[in-house]
Amino acid sequence: MKTRLLLALVGLSLLSGCTIRGPEVRVKAPEVVIGDQGHHCPPGQAKKGRC
Questions:
Q1: In degrees to the nearest 10, what's the CA dihedral of 17, 18, 22, 26?
Q2: b or e along 26-39 (b: 16 or more beta carbons within 10 Å of the residue's beta carbon)?
Q3: How many Cα neighbours within 13 Å face the side chain of 43?
Q4: Whole-angstrom Cα distance, residue 49 to residue 35?
Q5: What string of H, E and C letters represents the secondary structure of 8-40?
Q6: φ and ψ at 17, to 5 degrees?
Q7: How many Å apart are CA 31 and CA 44, to the nearest integer?
Q8: What are phi and psi of 34, to 5 degrees?
C-alpha cells in the first residue's frame, strides 16, 4: 500500500512540471507603398514604371 502511494506521488510530481504549448501564429500586416504623387502603388506596378 505504501509503495503504491509513493509511486503515485512520484508520478504526480513528474507530471506537475510539464507544460503544454500550442502552435504560435504571427500575422504581419501588408506594407503600403506610396508613389511619388502620393497615391497607392499596387504591387508589381512600380517595377513596370507605372507609379
A1: 40
A2: eeeeeeeeeeeeee
A3: 3
A4: 11
A5: HHHHHHHHHCCCCCCCCCCCCCCCCCECCCCCE
A6: -85, -5
A7: 13
A8: -105, 125
Global model pTM greater than 0.70: no
pLDDT for 11 equals 79
Vertex 8, ends 6 and 11: CA angle to 5°?
110
Q: Is 5 helix (H, G, I), strand (E, B) or coil?
A: helix
Q: For residue 51, what is its C-alpha cell? A: 507609379
Name the CA radius of gyration of the chain, rounded: 29
Q: Which residues of the chain have pLDDT under 50?
A: none
CA–centroid distance for 38 within its chain: 34
In one-letter notation, the amino acid at residue 28 is K
